[in-house]
Fold each of these.
Amino acid sequence: MHHFASVALVDPAGRILLQERDSQPRIDPDCWGYPGGGVEPGETYEQAAYRELEEETGVRLEPGTLELVGEFRFWSEACGGIDEFCLYTAGTDLTEVECHEGRQMVFVDPQVATTLDLTASARLTLRDFLASSIYAKVAP
């Protein structure tokens, strides 16, 4: 089983931060998804979410900033097994971030985001997240 954590960061306009992956990754190449990555040994999902967000975007959030959206599982053809991940969210005053991984890391309008070629985890969660009370709480 593959364990990872992702972050749905929401800017002041209600746009969601998404990463356009390049063609190199074995999992979901050339797709759009949340910043995030694997949980390291001895690390919690939440710790991984903070670490991965900082590694991929340069954004360092204070502990306690992220709110759990949910824990999810799905079958991954690329991994040949079950992927389990936790999705976290937070609002931010930022409107741009650095991109340390993939082609680009940008805040995307929710209506546009749902039309993109999404990663498996984003396909599973994005529409429900955007319709949730948690999104309404972190979006303006």
Note: The helical segments are 45-57, 110-113, 120-130, 133-138.
Amino acid sequence: MTDATNCPKCNSEHAYQDRNLWICPECAHEWSAEGPETDADTSHDTSVRDAHGNVLADGDSVIVIKDLKVKGASSVIKGGTKVRNIRLTEAADGHNIACKVDGIGAMNLKSEFVKKA
């Protein structure tokens, strides 16, 4: 493959074209085949948003919106639990919030299960 079809974000050679967009299956980055001037239009998609569409930032406080089972433990994070001082991460598995939950400890959460406090 040529460099034009490699992902500009992770340089993966497994990118494929879907109509007028190129899609990387490894990092889920999408870009236009027309050129770099349209990449600036899609750059707002890199922000992390909560379940209601609010933009999250490092240091924000969030509230868990539903009961979440903790993998590898018998405990549960109850809906309504407030988590303070989050850190945003870029994880491939979708867990893009690193935080400490009172009574449980350090863990990663998905932004789709929280709302901004």
Note: Residues 37-44 have pLDDT under 50 and may be disordered.
Amino acid sequence: MEMACDERREFADLLAGLAPEQWDEPTLCSQWRVRDVVAHAIGYDELSTADLVGRFVRGGFLVNRINAIGTGDLAGRTPEDLVQLVRDHICPRGLTAGFGGMIALVDGMVHQQDIRRPLGVPRTIPSERLRAVLDYALYVPLIRGAWRARGVRLVATDLEWSHGKGLTVRGPGEALLMAMAARPDALQQLVGPGKERLAQHI
């Protein structure tokens, strides 16, 4: 949970420094602008159990439709309002607080990078936090990193972390995470004989 809170603080700081026009820039999430990704990242925190069930019903229990409903409810707000919403939810609540805050941590880290990469705003993620997310991303259902990395061995070059058997793929831990999260943009930073096979699963 402490890591999730730290991740959201850094996310809020990033957003507070964006220029107005950057909020409508595209991200690595297909068809989502920066403001849409932000709305999605915090869109579950204020939902009660009844509200959450209602959203799932409205979305026909289809993940993309459920996410679109929540994003649509918030994405029209001003950048200032969205930044304040993130600051109001530094510590995750509701669904995102699940598994001791790990849902918020994984989702928040991936989506922060969805914004940073297209905007050309890199950062150094603390190794302990990145390692925790890499481990969890292997098995969380909405990422399925281990499934995407089947048949290859992922090896981080900037921290002690590896996973799998097979042809090797090496690169920064953040790039391995984004590849496991099905972001082809990350392949540019990866090397090794298993890269082509990994690319086929993204």
Note: The chain has ten helices and three strands.
Amino acid sequence: MARQKEFDRADVLQKAMQAFWRRGYEATSVQDLVEATGINRGSMYDTFTDKRGLFQAAVDFYISNVSAKRLSKMLETESALEAIRTYFEDLIAFSVGDGRKLGCLITNSVVELAPHDPDIGGMLRGSFARVEEVFYQTLLRAQDEGGITAQIDARAVARFMTATANGIRVFARADADAETLQDVVNSALSVIESKHPELPVAAE
């Protein structure tokens, strides 16, 4: 009986994630994945079933090892308002640095796949929901701390911040510079820092 080739699953998923992130799902062939990950087709199919299965595993890896770390930092930063500022600063730094022209794997994949793949679309939208929830909890904390006005509807603003974060990644993929992205962030932050918010206010 042939011995199954052993490989480091995390290393394979990291490399597959990068391949899908750079090229997109459809443009990444099985041969591209073989070359990127260093495992053979047999091992890939035995472990992940097919290209779609490897993509789903790579997206899970991205959520757990890229997105989750950034969100955890926002939850763990002592000042809630500073946590939101730092989240966007880190996002800009990555978007004009190592992640230049990559965009966000989740956002890219939603645009490409969600309209015609409900299962993957649901998984990807779940990632957006997690980002929104972390913004929501952080905004509530900022209100408790007195960093932002209690008038603001934290849920509505959390959705706005989630959309802003995704917009930044799309802009960055179109080669926007740091100044442009900072303008977007400054405008978003002005909403929560204003004493007279223009977005929906919390119900009395």
Note: The two ends are 71 Å apart (CA to CA).
